[in-house]
Specification:
Elements lengths: L12 E6 L4 E6 L4 H13 L5 E2 L25 H19 L1
Antiparallel strand pairs: 1-2, 2-3
């Protein structure tokens, strides 16, 4: 997503966006409820560094995010798929405990 300068090497990334100010902030790292909530609160209070929207990609009113298609740079290899499935299986097992 070039608008928010999300680097595919730093995924998962959460982007906090202020439409009024046309500025955003990233959360790269721990992807759990408490961390996301803490960063969201800091963003809303102005406690995170923010960045302007890149180029002329300002968000428009009425944009339906459900219809945005994110394109990946390359298809996953079979090894990538196996690794991802192992990670997901471990996460499911951890949640079931």
């Amino acid at each position: 997503m070039p608008v928010f300068e999300v680097n595919p090497m730093f995924i998962p990334t959460v982007v906090f966006f202020s439409p009024e100010k046309q500025r955003y902030a990233h959360l790269i790292g721990r992807f759990d409820y408490e961390t996301v909530k803490e960063h969201q609160e800091r963003f809303l209070r102005g406690g995170l560094p923010t960045f302007p929207i890149a180029g002329e990609a300002a968000m428009r009113d009425g944009l339906d995010c459900k219809n945005i298609k994110i394109e990946t740079e390359a298809e996953m290899s079979e090894l990538d798929k196996e690794i991802l499935e192992e990670i997901l299986a471990e996460e499911r097992a951890r949640r079931a405990e």
